[in-house]
Each structure stands twice: as structure tokens, then as C-alpha cells.
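One example copied in:
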Amino acid sequence: MVVKVIRVENIVKTYTVNKTVVEALHGISFEVAQGEIFGIIGPDGAGKTSLFRILTTLLLADSGTASVDGFDVVKDYKAIRNRVGYMPGRFSLYQDLTVEENLNFFATIFNTSIKENYDLIKDIYSQIEPFKKRRAGALSGGMKQKLALSCALIHRPSVLFLDEPTTGVDAVSRKEFWDMLKHLREQGITILVSTPYMDEASLCDRVALLQNGSILSIDTPENISNNFPKKLWAVHADQMLHLSKDLHQWNETESCFSFGENYHVVLKDDNKGKNDIEAFLLQQQHTGIEINQIHANIEDCFMALMNNSNDKN
């Protein structure tokens, strides 16, 4: 039997900004299974932080219900705070305290010690332990990240909430961090992680694609990519700015987005393809044309879902 550790049902959250009501979360619902790495994927302003603050009992929803580890986020907030670890997007530890002092402080809050739970954090903490006397404010981005994760884990939580944990760190530190998350999952910890980086979606067991407070899709990264509805073409030419202008103005183009050194193109008529694109670009006097059919990635799917959502609205 699959145990659902996180349940969210029709959560709504609004804010008033300059007398204008902004809906941060629009009736979202999902469940997370025990021991799962579940990703909330979306750009800045999608509603990720509001959702995390509600689930960690730091913010009240306007309507809807949610539970974590079987406890209601409103009625049982004290129990939840003792059972979850939370790493907010911004580095929130004490800059003037040393690495060791920060970790001791968080252990004391939860009536435990570094020694008692060292086995859980040793693979992470051992990388920054040589700098345990250094003030937290003097650490690099990657080291701050490891310290914040160690502090979130020191009381051995059953559920770990990570709000954009890799924002602002280098690529090597990002990879190391995800390796750590996989190890934590193997120890039975349920992980809810948000990120604006689409490439990190493939590292999750399942993901929810979030845009403007609404969930566009929930599934495994593989299934989301496999369900891309049409053929996708990677197009490159010598004059990329000119290429972009022509592809966007072509009446056969359904969508066209920049991805690295190519434009990813979907045609309105799926029966048309490489020869049709090439003929059009030659007509527009392009040179160095390269056209290849490719498999959609998560970002392609997100853009397609977002376009479909905008069309419906």
C-alpha cells in the first residue's frame, strides 16, 4: 500500500498588492507518496513559495485543506513543525554564527544534538566540517547550501521541504546537491523540492508543472515528455535573429522558442516537416540551415502546456 505523506486539496491563496487582488494559488491539488522526490517546477511568481509556506504552517491558505504526515496544517501545526525540515529559498541561517554554532543552535531547538543524528547528515556535513569555525556569512554559495540542508535535517525529519535550494549556486554544487537528495530518499525521507530549473525536473520521481498558481500537469518526467502532442523540430541557421523573425511570422508555425543554439519549432500541421521548413527558409534566403526532429524535454512540454492554458483563457 502506497502511503500518501502530503495531501493538498483545492488550496487557494490570494494577496492584495496596491489594491489589486493577486491569486497566488488557484485551487491546486496533489498528493506525494512516502519516500518520493516530488518536484514543483515553475518560473518565479508561479506560486511555489506560497505553497511551501502553507505546507510548513508559516502561512494560512484562504481555502482548501492540506496535511503533512497525517497532520492538518492548521489544527496540528505544532506537530508538523516538529516533523518537517524546511530550507527556504534565501539563506536564512545566522550569518555571524559559525558553521558549528548554527548547527548546534538548530539541534538545541529540537531537543537533540549533532552527535545523536550525525549519521543522517555526515555525508553532507563532512564536506563543510573542516570549516566549522568559519562564520556562515563567509561561506561560498555551495557551502551555505550544505549548511542549510544540514540544519534542516538535524532533527531527523520525516518530510523535507526545499524551496529553490539550488538557485544561485554553481553547476557542480547543483549536481552534488541532487546526489545528496537521492541518498536522503533512500533513507525514507519524503522530499518536496521546488525549482525554476527545468533540467532538474528529470531528477525527480514525479513533478507538478506550476504556472500562475495553477498546476498544468502532474506525472513522471518521462511520461510528461512522452506525451508531447506533436512533432518537434530543432532549427538552426547562420543568421539566428533573422531566423527567429521569419519563423515567428510564418503562418505554418504554431510555436517557436529559443533553446541553446537552436529554435524549437512546432508546426500547425503535423503532417508537414523538415522539407517544408527548409523550403520556407531557403525562400527567405537563409544559409547554413540545419533541421532535426527531436524528442521533447520538460521545458518544451511546459511551454506547450502554458500556451494551451493561455489559449483557453
User: Anything to note?
Assistant: The chain has two domains: 4-93+155-225, 229-294. Residues 171-186 form the longest helix (16 residues). The chain is about 35% helix and 30% strand. Residues 57 and 77 are 6 Å apart (CA to CA).
